[in-house]
Structures are given as C-alpha cells and as structure tokens.
Automatic annotation (TrEMBL):
The chain crosses the membrane at residues 21-40, 60-80, 101-123, 135-155, 167-183, 203-222, 242-264, 284-305, 339-360, 366-386, 398-418, 424-444. Keywords: Membrane, Transmembrane, Transmembrane helix. The lineage of its organism: Bacteria, Bacillati, Bacillota, Bacilli, Lactobacillales. This is Amino acid permease. Pfam families: AA_permease_2. It comes from the Bacteria.
Length: 449
C-alpha cells in the first residue's frame, strides 16, 4: 500500500508538508553525493587499481554507470513521486515483500552505515587536523552524527536549507583543488594510456571491479531524493531535473579532482593514505592554506552526513505507516516541526553501534553491495513497468530507451559479481543481515492480516 499522494502527506500523528523546491532537491542530490567519497575513496581506488590509467577509468566508468542509473531511476521517481522513494518503485514492480526487504536493508544497513562511516571519516580528519589522539575518534563521530540529527529535528525546511548552505561551502575546496591543482606545475606525470592494472594487483578485471565498488560509494546518494518527494512542491518536474543534472555535474567534478590528486601525489603516496586529501591540500596551498582547505573538506563531509540523515529518517516513518516494522506506532510519531523524530533516533542508535565495530572502507563497501542489489532491481523495474503498466503517467521518460537502462543493469550486475568474487565474506554479511528481515516481515504480515 503506497503512501497517499496529496498536497500534504499525513498520518494520524501529523503531516509531512510540501515545502521543498528545486534547489533544495538539487542540493540534496549533489550534497548527499559530494562529500567523503571524492576525497577519501581516492586512496582505496588507487590501492586496488595500482595505476593512474585504471584509477581514472574507474572514476569515469563509475560516473557513466551513475549517469545511466540516475536517468533510469528518474523515470520512476517522476512517475511515482511519493515519500519513500525507492520503496515505492520496488513495491509497484515486485510487490510488498521486496519493498519490505529493501526498506529493512536501508533501515538497518544502508543509512546507518552511511552516517557511521561518514562520521568516522569526519572524526578522523578532525583528529588529524588538530593533532588529537585516536581515542577521540568515536566520541567526535557520535557528536557529529547527533548534532546533525538535532538540526533536522527543526523541520525539513531547516534540513534542506542547511543542505543548501553546506553545498555552497563544500564546492569551495573542490573548486580550489581543481583550479590550483591543475594550473600549478604537477609534481607527478599522469599516464592515462595504455589502460592497465598495476603490477601488484590481481589482474585487470578484478582491479576494475574493486575500483568501481569503491567509486560507487563516492557517486552514491542520487536516488534518495525520491524519499522526500512527498515534501517537494512539484516532484514530477523537479525530481528528474535534480537527479540527472546533479549527477552529470558530479561526474565532471570528480574526474577533475582525481586528476588534480594524481598530479600532486604519486600512486604509492596516494594508495591507502587516509590523509591523502590533507596531503594534497598541503602541497598545493602550503601549511596554513592546506589547513583551511581541509576545514572546507570537513564541512563537505558534515553536509553529506546531513543529506543521509534527512532522507534516512523518513524510511522508518514510511514503513511504520504501513505497519512493516516493530513498534510501528512509535515510528510514525512526528514532533511539532512535523519531523519523524523517533525514526531519526532509531537510525542514530544503529549508526552509533556501527561506529563501534566497523571502519570507513568496510562499512562503505558493505552498504554499496547491498544497495546495488536493489538499484539493479529498480533499473529492471523501469523496463518491467513499461510492459505491465503502459498507461502509467510518466512526466519524464529515459532517453535512448532501452539502451541506458540496459547499461545501468549491466553495470549493476558487474559490481555485484565482482564484489562476490573479491570480498565474498563482506558480501555475505550484507546478505545475511538483509535476510534477517524476513522473519519480521512474516510475523508482522500475520499480525496485521
């Protein structure tokens, strides 16, 4: 059962108001995507690819797949502009069970893992910048996540405004690194051809697969603006524009940033270096300038946490409306600012638990694998619904259909298969945690039958 699409999306406890316009939606796409990934996944991509050429190819193909994914997903976002986003698309195409499983995976893995991983990387860079001890990382991460949650408790308009402000702030260090990193005399020669894996990695295909998995975290986040469709004034018009336009801009920015990184640090200095962004900023701008740019990067990460917090807390709310989670009657409660605050607290508690047990790369790789199972189902759903519901009003249709959806599907399958090959144990942990939702589904379905 889909959430009723009206001017206001409501429940017995309150209402979600339609107050967001195009720019906050675009800011949510770009602000949620641009953050830790572009700065801190560069080290992971360099480590698994081993060469500048394959490093850049991974970022290019990651962007290409994401553009195709965004253009494909935008068709369903415009046709089914309801709060819950991808939950609604999966339910429409495959039924309640798969929608529940996606919701469960997002509630217990995807959004908390994003908040946890981003908070850890924020705390790590904060610690490094100010010369603090490693013991401060988890406390700082908890404070960062909790403070963002409190901002969002002020309402969706406050969260959207904060996202817009941090987007502007985060573009400053990106622009500085790109402009000055490309204009200055490079310290390293960057070879883009021939494209080949480094000598220390296990072959071209596995290296490309691992590189793509890492870049997918950096590109991730575009589809989740659909979660706030119920609060957009004109979702049919603004959703596809925000998703498609946002990703194209992000792809160009990412390629320029990575090229600037590679011209500043050689592969051995970049690979696996959690301080790579700070090192690059220091080399380009000197000591004090590097610290100022690093502060800008911290603001960027902080804004990214906000994007996942703002959209993530609305999923337990949506599932609670449909009695799909334990304590659903609590999760649908809204505060005086019409924000699902108990759902937000639940996500924060899970995120804090993840901070205690996982590092940045482990959490991000697991969440990317799990979510791309459902992304691929969304791409297939576009083709499926074209056949089963030809009369569905589609304000926006995928260009070059079915070529672009097929590229997105092939890209998704490649990412999943290569993760199973390269990181089988991590992939299985994600699958098992997702499958743990099945008993809850069966119990609640029987209870509310």
């Amino acid at each position: 059962m889909a959430v009723n699409q009206q001017d206001v999306v409501g429940s017995q406890q309150g209402e979600l108001k339609r107050t967001m316009t195009f720019f906050p939606a675009l800011s949510t796409v770009m602000g949620t995507v641009i953050g830790a990934g572009v700065f801190f996944k560069a080290a992971s991509v360099a480590a698994v690819t081993g060469s500048t050429s394959l490093h850049m190819l991974s970022w290019f193909l990651g962007g290409l797949i994401s553009v195709c994914a965004g253009l494909t997903g935008a068709e369903l976002a415009a046709a089914i502009p309801e709060t819950g986003g991808m939950l609604r698309y999966i339910e429409r195409a495959y039924g309640e069970f798969w929608s529940f499983l996606l919701g469960w995976a997002q509630v217990v893995i995807y959004f908390p893992a994003n908040v946890a991983a981003l908070s850890i990387i924020f705390a790590t860079q904060f610690k490094n910048l100010f010369g603090m001890s490693d013991a401060t990382i988890i406390p700082i991460a908890i404070v960062a996540a909790a403070s963002i949650m409190l901002i969002n408790f002020l309402g969706s308009k406050a969260g959207g405004m904060f996202q817009s402000i941090t987007l502007v702030c985060k573009l400053v260090p990106l622009a500085l690194i790109v402009i000055f990193g490309l204009l200055r005399q490079g310290d390293v020669s960057v070879s883009l051809f021939p494209v080949q894996a480094g000598p220390a990695v296990g072959g071209f295909a596995p290296a490309l697969g691992a590189g793509l998995l890492a870049t997918m975290f950096a590109y991730d986040g575009w589809i989740h603006v659909g979660n706030i469709a119920g609060e957009l004034k004109n979702p049919a018009r603004d959703l596809p524009r925000a998703i498609a336009g946002g990703i194209l801009g992000i792809m160009v920015v990412y390629l320029l940033v990575q090229f600037a990184f590679l011209r500043t640090l050689d592969m051995s200095a970049l690979a696996g270096n959690e301080n790579a962004a700070m090192d690059v900023a220091g080399k380009i701008f000197g000591g004090m300038g590097g610290k100022l740019v690093t502060i800008g990067i911290l603001i960027s990460v902080y804004g990214t946490i906000n994007g996942y917090t703002m959209t993530g807390m609305r999923l337990p709310y949506t599932m609670g409306l449909e009695k799909q989670l334990p304590f659903s009657d609590k999760l649908v409660k809204l505060n005086k600012n019409h924000v699902p605050y108990i759902a937000g607290i639940l996500e924060l508690v899970i995120a804090i638990g993840m901070m205690m047990v996982g590092g940045f790369d482990m959490l991000t790789d697991m969440l990317v694998f799990v979510i791309w199972i459902f992304y691929t189902l969304v791409f297939i759903a576009v083709i499926k619904l074209r056949k089963t519901e030809p009369d569905l009003v589609r304000p926006y249709k995928v260009p070059l259909y079915p070529i672009i959806p097929i590229i997105a599907i092939i890209g998704g399958i490649f990412i999943l298969v290569m993760t199973l090959i390269n990181q089988f144990q991590l992939a299985m942990v994600g699958i098992v945690i997702t499958a743990l939702g099945i008993p809850f589904y069966l119990y609640l379905k029987k209870k509310y039958k």
